[in-house]
Specification:
The protein has about 180 residues and is of the alpha+beta class. The protein folds into 2 domains: about 1-110, no CATH class; about 110-175, no CATH class. Helix content is about 40%, strand content about 20%. The protein has 5 helices and 6 strands. It has helices spanning about 5-10, 15-40, 55-65, 70-80, 135-145; strands at about 85-90, 105-110, 115, 120-135, 160-165, 175. A hairpin with a 7-residue loop joins β5 and β6. α2 (about 15-40) runs parallel beside α4 and α3 (about 55-65) packs antiparallel against α4. The longest helix is centred in the N-terminal third of the chain and has 26 residues, at about 15-40. It is globular. It binds zinc ion.
C-alpha cells in the first residue's frame, strides 16, 4: 500500500464520539495557532485574523462518526466552543477524560514566530516568554467585585504576549 492510500484510509476511519470531538479540537487548535503566527508575522498590530474553518472542521468530525452519534457529537462540539481559549505555549494541554469526553482542550497555543529583530538587524525566531489572558483576569476581578460588573465579556478576548528574540535574548516585544 502506498503512502497516499494509507493516508486516505486513515482519513476515513470511523471515530467514536469522544475521538471525533478530540479530532475537531486538535484541528481547531492547530488553526488558531497558525492564524496567530500569521497575525504576528505578517499583519500589522491591531489587525485581525479570522478563524473561518470551524464549519469545515465540524463537518469533518461529524462525517467520521456513525449517523446516530452525530447529534451528540454536534452538541459536544458546541459545548467545547463555549469555553474560553486557554492560553499556552509549547504544546497542547490535556485534561482527564470523564466518561469518554475529549482529552484536548480548546486553546491558543502561542507559536514560535519569525520577526525582525532590531538588535540582530535581521529576522530571527521569537518565542513567547510571558503571556496573560486578560479576559480571564478581568472576569476574576469582576467576580471578586474589585471592578464594576456592568460589562459583558462574552465578546471580548484580550490577550497580552511578550515575545523575545531567541538569538540575542534582547528586550521582548509586546503584543
Ligand atoms: Zn535578536
Amino acid at each position: 500500500m502506498c503512502m497516499e492510500q494509507l493516508k486516505t484510509k486513515m482519513a476515513d476511519e470511523i471515530l467514536d464520539p469522544a475521538e471525533a470531538v478530540g479530532h475537531f479540537l486538535k484541528r481547531l487548535n492547530d488553526e488558531v495557532s497558525n492564524q496567530i503566527r500569521l497575525l504576528l508575522e505578517e499583519k500589522h498590530l491591531y489587525q485581525k485574523v479570522k478563524i473561518d474553518r470551524i464549519e469545515e472542521f465540524r463537518r469533518e468530525a461529524l462525517r467520521r462518526v456513525p449517523k446516530e452519534a452525530r447529534g451528540s457529537v454536534a452538541s459536544r462540539i458546541e459545548t467545547e466552543l463555549q469555553h474560553l481559549l486557554s492560553l499556552t505555549s509549547g504544546g497542547f494541554p490535556t485534561r482527564v477524560s470523564m466518561e469518554g469526553g475529549p482529552k484536548l482542550v480548546l486553546c491558543l497555543n502561542l507559536p514560535i514566530v519569525r520577526l525582525f529583530c532590531h538588535t540582530c538587524k535581521r529576522k530571527e525566531p521569537f518565542g513567547p516568554v510571558w503571556y496573560q489572558d486578560a479576559t480571564n483576569e478581568m472576569l476574576k476581578l469582576r467576580r471578586d467585585e474589585k471592578i464594576g460588573r456592568n460589562f459583558d465579556v462574552s465578546n471580548i478576548r484580550l490577550y497580552f504576549f511578550a515575545y523575545q528574540c531567541q538569538y540575542c535574548e534582547g528586550a521582548p516585544k509586546d503584543f
